[in-house]
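Format notes (please read before filing issues)

Several people have asked whether sequences and structure tokens are stored in separate files. They are not. Every record keeps both together, in the order shown below: the sequence lines, then the token lines. Line labels are part of the format and must not be stripped during preprocessing.
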Amino acid sequence: MNDPQEDVDRIRAKRLAKLQARPSSPASSHPSSAPSVPVISTETPAPQAEKPKLPLNVTMTVQRPQPPTPSVPLKKKSMLVPKLDLQTWEDETLTQIFKVTLNRSVAEQSTFDIVWLKGLEAELASEGHPSPARLSGDIADRVLISRLELNPNDMSDLDYVAVLASLPAQMTAFEHLIGCWKRLNSARTNLMKKSPVNEMQQALVILEKIRDLIISYAGFNLQAPEMFPQPPGRKTGPSELVGPLLSLSALSTPLSASSFPDYVLSPAEVEPFLQDLARRFEPDNEIDGVLGPVAQQLLFHESLLRPEGLGGGDSSWRGVVGGVETLVSVKSIAAMLTRLDEWNPPHATAPTFEKVTLMGPLCRLGVFSREWPSVAQTYFSEPSKRTRNDVESSSASLRGTVKSLQSSLFQIFNTLVRASPESREAVLEYFATAIKLNVRRAGMQVEPETVASDSFMINLQSVLLRFTEPFMDARYSKMDRIDSLYFAFSRRIDLKDETRIKATSEEASQWAEQNKANATTPNFISEIFYLCNAMGHYGYLRTTQTYEDFGKHHDELQRHHDMINGDGSWMGTPSQARTEAALNQMKGEMAKIQANQLAFRVQLLEPDFIFRYIGFTNFVSTWLLRRVDPKGLHPTPTVELPLPQEVPMSFRVLPEYILEDVVEFFLFITRHSPDSLDLSGKEELLVFALTFLTSTWCIKNPFLKAKINEAVFYGILPYGNARNGILGGTLNSHPLALKHLISALTHFYIEVEQTGASSQFYDKFSERNIAYVLKAIWSNPVHREALNAEAQNVDKFVRFINLMINDVTYLMDESLSELTQIHNIQTEMRDQIAWATRPTQYRREREGTLRGLERHASGYTTLGKSTVGLLRDFTAETKAPFMMPEIVDKLAAMLDYNLEALVGPKCGELKVKQPEKYSFDPKRLLSDILQVYLNLSDQSEFARAVANDGRSYRKELFDMAIARARKITLKTEVELEQLRLFIVKVEEAKAVIEAEEDMGEIPDEFLDPLMFTVMRDPVILPSSRAIIDRSTIKSHLLSDAKDPFNRVPLTINDIIPDLELKAKIDAFIAERRSKKVASDKPQEEVVDVDVDVVMN
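Then the structure lines:
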């Protein structure tokens, strides 16, 4: 066994060597000079980077120079400065600070509260020091080491047992050093209270050297606590500083330092202690080894991993927040954090990034049910049984907590960014890495376990949104500081797999190469702007999709529940228990989904977060418009519409998600929190939508254009007291809307006909919802004047009307057909005796069919009804476009067909239970169709077109319609008389048409190949060489810009008039008319119908 004394000597030598390795400070290099030590506040001393290191050499010699000669002569003896017995003060002060003495009697008098250093006294005596020995700065290092080496459990020296027994048995070396540090601060405060003395400067130098010594050993103890004897069972090292840091919670009650034991740092003392550590260990980044482990233990604290997350009564995570805020308040410590390996480890993956990075565990705190399921279970369980006030109270409580956390996170990251250029770069790279690792979040059907959590991404988004606030002023004065060549230079955001707004990947690469030489290192504003866009794309907006999916899943479960429940015929059967269990299980699942939805809303719709996100989205939308504005000045003045056809390449190569996310965010807000747009966002959304709806060539993706229109649609849906939605007032007052809205809507209605997708025929019905928008603005005469002006562009408006008629034809046919099927199933189920005899499987299949029909019928009926209303309003405002040859026959045929369905022999098949469930209002539909007839009743072309409809027109239908309208008071007597006179006109036109058509056998070459009617203006199609009537091909091209015979692209300008064939047809018609018999009615009995207008 080794000699204990030899071990002590060896440990001492090792520690002394470590301290002696430190370079001497100027004070120790020049002992003859007395450096001026600035007064350091004991409350919150500020770090002084320029201050030289205090001496750390173990042979700590303090030179006591003579008092300097006063620069001003003393005038009176009474002003002589009193002297301080420095040696006595030094001995007494060091005794008090270290709680030690070299005199046994002093220790005995204090009942060994002051520790007698027997071994050091003997050493000094052997070295020839005078007796009794006094404490001084010269031997302070040896004094401190001797005290720290004392082991209360070492009872080998019986003469020393009383001393060792008096030592605090459970006090660690670090706690003793904390006590020394606190007593030193008190000694310094007491010294400063004394009257000015010449020796005070020397005394302050001694205290600062002692401070440096204490802090040095405190830092070494944090790194290697095994250097000195430690009490068994106590946690030592970094955890000893983590404890005081955890006590700094923002919710902790402030306590004075006197409320804490002598060896424990009070909350007010933690920051000054950290500043002393930073000053001592900052050079050469030694602070990394001292405080790095402390930061790691703090930021990976177990309180951040509790399943309750931010919920529950335990808010110990707030202590971590307070501790980190205090750590980073010291610049050198803040910079140190970003140098640690755990700051942004290269081995991290998307799901582990938030768990292995230094800030990850703190940033992933939240309330989203996927990662924190207990929050939804605790605060929102069984939501259907909770009162609204209860739910709102729970939401408000959690939102306050989320807001507090996000505010603290920003303060931490903001401090890190300002600590040094290197730490700022590290923070930016941290955000960028989180984005790069989580690009899969934007994919379809992503497994949550393979990407970062919603809480983590949204908390980072909240930090970035706060970073954007300084450059988002109301006048957009800093907008041009955003580097438009960012993606040509920076590789911080990977766009390799991203779709561009209107450029191929080759064009984007070429643009980057061409502009790389002109690009410069992006500024901080540009970095934050583009990172915030990307974080929103992969973070917040993906979480909103999850929230929307909850709603869809809930609806599916509800439908499945209703299907199983059916008519309740399972009750009292052997399957009752199994059916009830299945129903209860679905009810439980639906309750969980509702609880999850409420938990998601807490963080997704936190008011302050939404306010900032709206501000940022407004800024992005304005920035995008400035990129396409030829003047580059939007919004001062506002961009001129429509935009030029030539789209700037700097706009085309931008990632599509920047533009798409503006739309997605506005869509989400208008659907789920429209009142959030009350303060700002309405005008920006409107201008953004109008710009790209009037200039759709700026965007390649047709579905993105449709989303822009959809955002406007949701903006006019009623909510609260706003009958026309959040955008209603703006649509009726904003100058840009008054000038361009009608044009934009009609342009979009035409363009959406061809989306390029295989499902384009069905896509258009979900995207054409302009009827609702027009309803919100129709009472405004300015918009109606704009419609008349739009109708002057005949080709465009006729195409628009044609598409509208096509839609009404399809939608009404589908909705009335499905209502008929619903009627048949309901009739079958109404006979309960016969229904009960049907097999169970058959009944379930029919019930499932019924529910499917109900879903579809509601959509078709709603959209069809609104489009018929659009026709009603348009025909009242402008009639000429509806009288074009390629339009009027289709319009008449559509109206006649639907009139027959509503009042004809089979109208009873449309009678269903709860028609309002399917948005089916037959009275209103009949009224609107009759109103279209009335609006156009003075047009002879329309009367002829109705008469020419051989499929559906019958005079008896109109008689029944008039009788029905009179019975239920749909129209006034004046209107009904006007309708009766119109039928007279139609009947007479029909007689004329029948007479004209009695031309006997007609040569095939004179017949239109599609309509099988006599061609009046034959034309040749250039590619197929087919001959067809001009009105037929014009009508076809309104819906499909291709040759109907070979599908080759075709325009109306490409067709070739067949003048020779036209002459033959005209001659044939003239010949047949001349052979008419004299049995025709006299001309004066015929109501005037301008047949030539239709025929020519």
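For reference, the curators noted about this record: The chain has a mean pLDDT of 85. Residues 563 and 845 are 9 Å apart (CA to CA).
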